[in-house]
């Protein structure tokens, strides 16, 4: 055992955390503390809390009442940082005016008018002072007219931004007034109004999205800094936050969408048929060419020329058909079918590899149980070897690298194909870049296969020394594949996608630890803006952090 020298300690550690590591990566100390986006799960219950956090920040900074803060935030799509930036850049007046927020100089806390009676400008009736309402913009109408206006707007689905009734007034009405007036006549509509306001936090917010699970888990996910990321909801679904389909990095969302469509379409098969068959000019059935002769005949009895598809007689030699000449057409036709064939083979090349890796991924996922059993056998042995966390960690490394590898094929298909970036690179540039990329991809592939192979061994029957050998192999290959994945992502981000001039493609960054699991939202958040201010999760459960 001397060979393993200094690492003796951790090999023989009796630390038993490894097992849970299979289901719960956070337990794996080797991954260190989580960095990056810190995604949050917003449940129906915590939606209010989440919204409050942002409202509070704006209310406190600008000394605003809640409904004004909400109007601002809805207008600026819940982007607090942008709202603050506009405040600094253009000033308060402009910030408010753009969003339709009006704040009277003389704050009239009680919005109802106290004078005895007044005439409503809408229905032209004389109404008692207690029956009219004055909005923040100063416009005053009778409660009946306001209520009617609000009900119409809510029914039209405009709850989030109901404007004042006065001609050319763009002020947004106070939600408290709306709620009060509407609930008197239409309580269920008032509830709907509240739900719309609440859900605006998700629907109008670039950084918050509903989890795409079916059936829907009821959760939304909030990301902190980067919308190009992959995340796991508390319901277990992993997805690309940006396009809401399955996690697909290092493929960009656009490439992924195209790829899915391409795989789904039968256009490729249709292409295959057009390459290998031609419709009979009489009955239109596809006819396959048989042998080298360019005169083909359909089962209906019609003879035709394979090169141009035209109906002909049956008299022919090897090089010509009696009474038929189509040489001019020949070359072009052949080129076209050659190109279709080449495109098809190219697609098949990438698709086969993509498919092979996805299949391996599925198979390896099934390995999980077998490996668990093998580890259990090892653990039950009376051996000095106690800690087998390297097995589960290695297996996770295999899963992650395999995923990255399989999605790197559709990426390469589009990156180096003619569909997307024809004008971005010369053929020479493309060739150089493709070589560079394929070198990395192949290295990764080779090491992923090696790692996969190690786990196929019947290691539950191994001697201690063999186990030690296997452990070293797994550890080494894990480091190598992790590094290679990281390098491949870097190459894609900087040398390939980053070098594009006319198009912009983003990919979720490489996560060595795997897809980030969103955590339940419970109070305080860490944003760039208040990172420096002490922010303890414990002290501030409902209000979140303030500036
Ligand atoms: Zn009226
Ligand atoms: Zn008004
Ligand atoms: Zn979910
Ligand atoms: Zn995506
Ligand atoms: Zn026919
Ligand atoms: Zn013939
Ligand atoms: Zn012909």
From TrEMBL:
Domain RING-type, first and last residues per copy: 116-330, 120-168
One MF term in the entry's GO annotations: zinc ion binding
Top-level class of the enzyme under EC nomenclature: transferase
Coiled coil regions in record: none
Cofactors, names only: Zn(2+)
Signal peptide (UniProt feature, chain positions): none
Gene3D superfamilies: 1.20.120.1750, Zinc/RING finger domain, C3HC4 (zinc finger)
Example GO BP: protein ubiquitination
EC annotation from Swiss-Prot or TrEMBL: 2.3.2.31
Superkingdom: Eukaryota
Catalytic activity: [E2 ubiquitin-conjugating enzyme]-S-ubiquitinyl-L-cysteine + [acceptor protein]-L-lysine = [E2 ubiquitin-conjugating enzyme]-L-cysteine + [acceptor protein]-N(6)-ubiquitinyl-L-lysine
Keyword Electron transport listed: no
Pfam family, one: IBR
SUPFAM superfamilies linked: RING/U-box (SSF57850)
Metabolic or biological pathway: Protein modification; protein ubiquitination
InterPro entries: Ariadne, ARIH1-like_UBL, E3_UB_ligase_RBR, IBR_dom, Parkin-like_IBR, TRIAD_supradom, Znf_RING, Znf_RING/FYVE/PHD
Keywords recorded for this protein, A-Z: Metal-binding, Repeat, Transferase, Ubl conjugation pathway, Zinc, Zinc-finger
Family: Belongs to the RBR family. Ariadne subfamily.
Role summary: Might act as an E3 ubiquitin-protein ligase, or as part of E3 complex, which accepts ubiquitin from specific E2 ubiquitin-conjugating enzymes and then transfers it to substrates.
Name of the featured protein: RBR-type E3 ubiquitin transferase
Name of the gene: LOC102591652
